[in-house]
Amino acid sequence: MSKGRLEAFSDGVIAIIITIMVLELRPPPHPTITELLRLWPVLLAYALSFLQVGVYWVNHHRLLDRATLATNGLRWANMLWLFTVSLIPFGTAWWGEHPADPIPTAIYMGTLLLPALVYPWLEAEALCNAAVEDTSGQHRIQKRKIIVSLLLYAAGMGLAFVTSALSIACAFAVTLLWVLPGGPIDRWIARTG
Amino acid sequence: MSKGRLEAFSDGVIAIIITIMVLELRPPPHPTITELLRLWPVLLAYALSFLQVGVYWVNHHRLLDRATLATNGLRWANMLWLFTVSLIPFGTAWWGEHPADPIPTAIYMGTLLLPALVYPWLEAEALCNAAVEDTSGQHRIQKRKIIVSLLLYAAGMGLAFVTSALSIACAFAVTLLWVLPGGPIDRWIARTG
Amino acid sequence: MSKGRLEAFSDGVIAIIITIMVLELRPPPHPTITELLRLWPVLLAYALSFLQVGVYWVNHHRLLDRATLATNGLRWANMLWLFTVSLIPFGTAWWGEHPADPIPTAIYMGTLLLPALVYPWLEAEALCNAAVEDTSGQHRIQKRKIIVSLLLYAAGMGLAFVTSALSIACAFAVTLLWVLPGGPIDRWIARTG
Amino acid sequence: MSKGRLEAFSDGVIAIIITIMVLELRPPPHPTITELLRLWPVLLAYALSFLQVGVYWVNHHRLLDRATLATNGLRWANMLWLFTVSLIPFGTAWWGEHPADPIPTAIYMGTLLLPALVYPWLEAEALCNAAVEDTSGQHRIQKRKIIVSLLLYAAGMGLAFVTSALSIACAFAVTLLWVLPGGPIDRWIARTG
3-class DSSP state for residue C67? Predict the structure, then answer.
């Protein structure tokens, strides 16, 4: 079986997940700027999750580009991975409503962490049939960045019980790690590895 | 007419169905772990249905791979099949709210069973123009697995009136049947056939 | 500009429209069979609209297969046509809640009629660059079937003020016209033309 | 990385955004024509936003057609642009509920303006690797039309505090600018530039 439909199906699911969160952004009942400003934690939560799902989509995209076949193992690892991504809107909605409470913040960080925990299995299934093994530094840097992301989300879960601002800072750090042009961060990661 | 748009449309519909169920997972009103834990039946229902729709997607994917043309019959059999799949979120939502009641459990099993009932017609329409008849053992095993799934869902419907745990066990058994690497199960099915 | 992305975008929109209606099918509050049975008008409305949107999708699919380019005119005719299709869930939801009232029934028939009213413009834009003019009987039959559908929906709108059962029968007749294998209906239409 | 999946993902997100707005169009509680007519501001808001998102989709489509590679910069500019488009349903819903109030009207215009503000960055990223620089008049006219649209939306934001009718007229003017066959408008823009 070709991997084309696997990509198309994954793109569909991720597009729905990333867009469904906008539904949480309900317009305020009264037409005043004060009421609008009260929505900022929900808007921030939505923007942050949009970025996190965006990072996951880009990495998923890159990973499947290197896969050659859609094996049974890859299909089911991908299904489990999509399931973990689909829990992010739930975490986002709960945290957006209680931005200063430790439990929703920790659960939100947990929903962001879950796809990173499944990712190594997905990667193993995608690359087990790869024609050429990628021994370039790029691949090693990618692997280290995934571990750094995982640690940042886990730290975010713990810091939720100190203050939710620190917790959210961890999620922002993950975004910066992936969005910023690789140069300095990649060199730093390559050196510390 | 080529089958490309038929696959793309089906993938879109199945991706929406599988993701729409996450909307049922409403965040609890208060930011406590007790309230979160009260959601477990809904989360379990969502995870279980994700797997069932996943199984159906993989089988649909495999089936259309073998079809050569999008005939009028195939288009309408596919439309009816997608309709039955689209009832699964309804069954999931009702069962998730009443996990121990016989009627919602039986109806949930019924919504899981419906696409399996339409599947043989879909298969006949997809393969009536197949260039080469597949006489390999793989195809025979596939057919038997579909019948076993159908019987498991039907048993699940009946067992809903005994205890819903047994009923859900049947749905889990269907998932195992398709997710586990074929080896031992396929050999057992091939032998008992 | 190629028509590939136009098809993909249209498929996405139609897939969402056809699946979004399932969200109207809310599970009943109590786990009893009586409450479930009270949902039958909504389920019927959903099933009927699924079929109508299905008919529109198949015809859209066939039409774009014959187009060669995505012109500016085709893009905007297609956008307007998608807009009219996207009103069907609204009509479906209103009629499903008031299945015996004339106004919601007539409005529902109206939302089914609208895409048929825009269709001739869409067809003109799609085929103005077609390489070969299709002078076969098949094309003539297709055109007549569209006019018959349009008249049936319009009749359904009027009959809503007599009894909604007759109105819905018109919508079912449109479905039969397109779903049934063409033979006898096509011959009858070809003769009466 | 090829740009195919970038287009498919963007099409999916835009298709969901354009269709999700229909969910705001809730059927009225009573089956009377008076109640239906009370919905006209929401229906107008939905139709207007459908057109605006349609304009953005067509321009995005044209832009990516000219890009050759999916670079890291293009992926993230596209992600940010999709995020701004995904705020349009929020603006639409708020304005639809308060069509005569200045704050919701201005915010609605603001959500329409945002993707136009990000568009130049998206364009720069998409075209930085374009094989051939487009020095034709068509490209210059396109650029000027984008600036005119941006100014119209900004004017609409300001006019919201005078009367919302003028504000909405600005959004309609943007639609006309892009939907009408280019001839007279393009010549006028080419002359005034």
Answer: coil
